[in-house]
Design brief:
This protein folds into 3 domains: 208 residues, FAD/NAD(P)-binding domain (3-Layer(bba) Sandwich), CATH 3.50.50; 124 residues, FAD/NAD(P)-binding domain; 111 residues, 2-Layer Sandwich (Enolase-like, domain 1), CATH 3.30.390.30. Helix content is 29%, strand content 24%. It has 14 helices and 24 strands. The strands form 6 sheets. Strands 1, 2, 3, 4, 8 and 18 form a 6-stranded mixed β-sheet that branches. A 6-stranded antiparallel β-sheet has the order 19-20-23-22-21-24, with helices on both faces. The chain has a 4-stranded parallel β-sheet with strand order 12-11-10-16, covered by helices on one side. A hairpin with a 5-residue loop joins strand 6 and strand 7. The longest helix has 25 residues.
Length: 490
């Protein structure tokens, strides 16, 4: 939950105390460090081990379940490639879940070992702040511990929200805090929300053969490039995921059969609808874990709407000697690698070994939907907003991955968009890629953004044939030209 640096524990002096953070750098830099980590069980009672959201109920199990879904598609493709697969192919949730959960537990253990090896004191207690140098910790049994330190670092992350105005939502629904730890298949599932969490979960549930519907109140992938968001959801629809567009849930009732009856309203027509599901997964946003920290008593500045902590460029809060990073920071990307890097840089500064600040510009990310979407830099909308429609040039291409050809898979939504400044060297402002291995592709091109890559740099780069990433360095059709951007030939 927080971190103390160069201070005093009730029974030992401590240089730095971190609460719920994966950052181990401070100890390696000679600081005495203690880490407070405590998982409040979800509404459904789900709890997990050391490592935070990413390891336990985020990136790691999500990517592994996404992989399970991709393998299902690969089995279908395999027949076209000559593999003789006899009998029907089916998926067993329990086998997948047990294997993934065991892997996560091994990561929990690995973090415990790393903390011990690096001489970091690990305390499985829930912390709250008493002042800028003091943290009160409570064990599950209610035993109190007081820790003091020169510096405190808060890295508590966030937790999924439940809608508060929908009867039955909390009683009968689950969130991403639960889906990865289910022992049994969620069955027919309604996913409410259209964030990347919602779409990723719906995607892998569909991919392993479950009847899955996504209920979208407004738009999908808010904050991402909206043309690409449309391609991602179009692909999901052809892939088998159902979408209830412009719909808002009204209530959830549990029937005597055990099924969940969901009542919702079509916001365009005002008509009311009902259907039954085995599970309702709420993916309607996340709230920062700041309420139980006692920040109001310290007078710490928060964003009243989001509950997030207002930070300076050096991750400092409005209270001296208290720092924060990750998802609880106002305006910070809610991405694990961003938090890890910010934490490492902060540790170096607190140890007096660096003055380098975190650069939050051009952070790459990928949405692991059935058709993956990787991006870095600005969306077309944001670039146009900042530079004007006549101030940008958008190069784009619809391409067909070679692996889709023999399998006769539809590639209508495989697309590349490179957003550039129109004048001068045509500096690249944003790069967007939908297709196989989008994360791997985007990670490579992301380095170019740190070097001030231009469109001419892209054209000077030799592609690796025959890859999907190669198509990025070949884009030459502009949207402005109106020419067909479909790639032909190999």
């Amino acid at each position: 939950m927080a971190a103390l640096c160069r201070g005093r524990h009730r029974w030992k002096r401590t240089n730095c105390l971190y609460v719920l953070t994966r950052n181990l750098t401070a100890a390696q830099l000679g600081q005495k460090v203690a880490v407070l980590d405590y998982v409040e069980p979800s509404v459904k009672g789900t709890k997990w081990g050391l490592g935070g959201t990413c390891v336990n109920v985020g990136c790691i199990p999500k990517k592994l379940m996404h992989q399970a879904a991709l393998l299902g598609t690969a089995v279908k493709d395999a027949k076209k490639y000559g593999w003789q697969i006899s009998g029907p192919v089916s998926h067993d949730w329990a086998t997948m879940a047990e294997a993934i959960q065991n892997h996560v537990r091994s990561l929990n253990w690995g973090h415990r070992v790393q903390l011990q090896d690096k001489k970091v004191k690990y305390l499985n207690i829930k912390g709250s702040l008493l002042d800028e140098h003091t943290v009160k910790g409570l064990t599950k049994a209610g035993k109190e511990t007081i820790l003091t330190a020169k510096n405190i670092v808060i890295a508590t992350g966030g937790r999924p929200k439940y809608p508060t105005n929908i009867p039955g939502a909390m009683e009968h629904g689950i969130t991403s805090d639960d889906i990865f730890w289910l022992k049994k298949s969620p069955g027919k599932t309604l996913v409410v929300g259209a964030s990347y969490v919602a779409l990723e979960c719906a995607g892998f549930l569909t991919g392993i053969g479950l009847d899955t519907t996504v209920m979208v109140r407004s738009i999908a992938l808010r904050g991402f490039d909206q043309q690409i968001a449309g391609l991602v959801t179009d692909y999901m629809e052809t892939y088998g995921t159902k979408f209830a567009w412009k719909c808002a849930p009204k209530r959830v009732d549990k029937l005597s059969s055990g099924a969940l009856q969901v009542t919702w309203t079509d916001t365009q027509t005002g008509s009311e609808h009902k259907d039954t599901y085995d599970s309702v997964l709420w993916a309607v946003g996340r709230a920062p874990e700041t309420k139980a920290l006692g920040l109001d008593k310290l007078g710490m500045q928060l964003n009243n709407e989001t509950g997030k902590i207002v930070l300076g460029a050096d991750e400092s809060t409005s209270v001296p000697n208290i720092y924060a990073f990750g998802d609880i920071g106002e305006g910070c990307p809610e991405l694990t690698p961003t938090a890890i890097k910010a934490g490492k840089l902060l540790a170096r500064r607190l140890a007096g070994q660096s003055t380098e600040l975190m650069n939050y510009d051009n952070v790459p990310t990928t949405v692991f939907t059935p058709l993956e979407y990787g991006c870095v830099g600005l969306s077309e909308e944001e670039a146009e907003k900042r530079h004007g429609k006549d101030g940008i040039e958008v190069y784009h291409a619809f391409y067909k991955p070679l692996e889709f050809t023999v399998a006769e898979r539809d590639a209508s939504q495989c697309y590349i968009k490179v957003v550039c400044e129109r004048a001068g060297d045509q500096k690249i402002l944003g790069l967007h890629f939908t297709g196989p291995n989008a994360g791997e592709v985007t990670q490579g091109f992301a380095m170019g953004f740190q070097c001030g890559a231009t469109y001419s740099h892209l054209l000077q780069t030799v592609g690796i044939h025959p890859t999907c990433a190669e198509e990025v360095v070949k884009v030459n059709i502009t949207k402005r030209s109106g020419l067909d951007a479909t790639v032909t030939g190999c």
